[in-house]
Amino acid sequence: MTRTAIGIELVGAVGLLGLLGACGDLAGFGGAVPPLATVDVQVTGDLASVQIPGPNPPALRVALVWGAQWLTEPLCILPPDDPSVATLVAAGCRDAFGFVPERVATNAPLAADGSAQLALLDLPAPDVMVGDVTARVAYASVVVYDDRDGDGTLTFGRANRLGGRENGPPDDQPTATVDVVYAASFASMTEPDTRLAFREGAFNQAAAFYPRSGCGDPLPSFSIVSAGGFSAQEALAAQLQGKLPPEDPAACRESSTAAPVSLPFRAPAELHELACVERRTDSSIRYREPPADAPDLTSRTIACAKVPDFGSGKANGAIQLAISGRSDDSCAGLTHYVLRGCRNDALCELPAWDITATPPSWWPCPVPAVR
Amino acid sequence: MWRSAVLLACCVGLPRTSRADDAALLTDDTWRYRSAGDLVVDGGLVLGFPAALPTGLAKGVGAGVMTGRQLAWGARASWVTATESSLPWTVTHSDLRLRVAGALQTAAGRGTLGLRLGLGGTLVHESRVRNQGMRAGLTGSDLESSAFSMLPAADLDAVVALHVAGPWLLMMSGGPTVDVFESKLHAGWSAQLGVAWQP
After folding, report:
1. Which of A196, B86, B148, B149 sits at a 20 to 30 Å CA gap from A177?
2. Residue A200 in contact with partner chain B when CB distance is under 8 A
3. Is A367 on the interface with B (CB under 8 A)?
4. Is the CB of residue A122 less than 8 Å away from at least one CB of chain B?
5. Is there a contact between A169 and A125 (Cβ–Cβ < 8 Å)?
């Protein structure tokens, strides 16, 4: 075969390849994105029986909300000093065992038959996962809400706290949310719950992040898990023993995300905290210096409470003025005023402010002796 | 002082020693070249724009064989790959470019300048992986997929070849490329740097 003949054959073969150039099925970055997990939701019950009338017909949507690791502040969990403090705690503290939202993962409209499908396109971010990279977990609650602000997602509110003296620029972020929560698969650890879990690596049974002690481990990656709940008394008793409150194994369930999540409509008053985020999640308190002029205490509950020192005696009778949010606020929370202290510690050795000698005229609490 | 003297002696003395060595690596014939043949085989590293990805830099290797003098023809092939990511996807494209080529070229001193037109197809292999899918437990087609497609394509390259020693040349080429992807023209570029052998 001559070199020319070989060349002609080569040209023909390569040219044929080019002519074959039919459209392929390359997708590149386009095309449908398969969800990482899909959660089927079925809402039961009668909305009309719990509905809060609004200006518009309800626009019910379903949100998947990742939970925050949150600890309540000491004043809300310790035995109250007197009835006024007990009243304050009832008015200004959220459920110490409740689900605290951190972030909405996804939203979907609720169909007329009460069904919805939530497609998760992203994994939970590390800040909603608890544990190290070898064993960490995140939990989410399925929340049904009336999207009254029409932004297509569950809008969170937060506690409406009062400002302090020389406390920096005013906090102008909105604290109220108009969205109304009508159902949640996971509202509190003190009642039966069903939650979406995302587990990566092993599972730490000793972790106290929305614990399900006595239940099986969540399945690897996404799964639906349930628990029967425990009482607050059981939780406190277990805590004193250094244990986690046990769940009833009969009420436990661990299944794949193929299992639908069923949840009933409930009164919004039982669920409003599902739309409230917390700025501080480690039980620490931000103390404020009381302003010179009396703050607006309309429809707020106040109490003079001892600064907790957990029996160390360091407080030496120091008193704080604790003030709840307004009764019509979206979210509960306390404002703490002390005459002497620091931003993060009312008992600090070198106080950032000390006005015990010149308390404001409106100060309703006993004034400690000047140091 | 004596150290400086030794160093000076080495600098002066060593070249004399080399010149006296009959088995030297470099001689006057070293840079003499010959270009008697019509056949040129070349190969080298290739950079270019992926044939079917909207972004990225494809890297790989290429080779070709051309025959002829002022008017040359031949065949070329190159394989390049590029990996790029979006939020949901990591996409790897491997392009196998097959071309028949014709070139107009002229000699200039030790070099050759040419303009080369290549026609043919680009066989694209696509591999897509769903980001975070493995951590989420996805498997099968939900996690990854692959596809092949042959795209009609053409290249226009400016070619510079420089005779270095004996039958060996340093060869550079580069220019625009175009292919037909999803019924649309998709423009790009490619460049190659390598060596050629001209017996």
Report:
1. A196
2. yes
3. no
4. yes
5. no
- Please indicate, yes or no, whether the overall pTM of this predicted structure exceeds 0.90: no
Identify any residues that bridge with B63 across adjacent strands, giving them in sequence order: B43, B77
The HSE-up count of residue A278 (CA atoms within 13 Å, CB side) is: 27
In a domain, A120, yes or no: yes
Tokens at residue B34, please? 């010959």
Domain that holds residue A118: 37-82+96-284
Q: Is residue A329 part of a domain?
A: no
Contact A37 B136 (CB under 8 A): yes
Record the tokens describing residue B168, joined without a space. Answer: 């060996």
| Confidence grade of residue A170 (pLDDT, cut at 50, 70, 90) | low
For position A1, what pLDDT does the model report? 45
Q: Is residue A295 part of a domain?
A: no
User: What is the distance between the alpha carbons of residues A37 and A197, in angstroms, rounded to a whole number?
Assistant: 11
Q: Domains of chain B, with CATH numbers?
A: 35-197 (2.40.160.20)
Residues of A within 8 A of B182 (CB-CB) are: 23
- Residue A5 to residue B15: CA distance in whole angstroms: 54
Contact A202, A235 (CB under 8 A): no
Go through B40-71 and write b for each residue having 16 or more CB atoms within 10 A of its CB, e for each that does not.
Answer: bbbbbebbbbbbbbeebebebebbbbbbeeee
3-class secondary-structure state, position A47: helix
pLDDT at B1: 47
In the predicted structure, residue A320 carries a pLDDT above the cut 90: yes
Q: Give the residue among A284, A272, A283 at the shortest CA–CA distance from A345.
A: A284
Distance from CA of A109 to the nearest CA of B (A): 23
Q: Give the pair of three-digit tokens for residue A6.
A: 């070989």
The answer to whether residue A22 sits within a structural domain is: no
Closest chain A residue to the Cα of B136, Cα to Cα: A221
Chain A window 209-248: which residues touch B at a Cβ cutoff of 8 Å?
Answer: 220-222
- Count the neighbouring beta carbons within 10 Å of the beta carbon of residue B97: 27
Contact status, residue B122 vs residue B50, Cβ threshold 8 Å? no
253-312 of A, contacting B, C-beta below 8 A:
none
Task: Please state the separation of Cα A36 from the chain's center in Å.
Answer: 22
| Closest CA of chain B from A340, distance in Å | 51
Q: What is the ipTM of this complex?
A: 0.75
Query: Could you tell me the CA-to-CA distances from A91 to A95, A110, A222, B149 in Å, in that order?
Result: 11, 33, 37, 67
Residues A293-304 have a mean pLDDT of: 94
Q: Is B89 exposed, middle or buried (0-12, 13-18, 19+ CB in 10 A)?
A: buried
Dihedral over Cα of A91, A96, A97, A102: its sign: positive
Chain A: give the shortest CA distance to residue B87, in Å: 9
- Size of chain A in residues: 371
For chain A, what is the domain count?
1
Interface test with B, best of A2, A9, A26, A200 (most B CBs within 10 A): A26
Residue with tokens 């503290």: A93
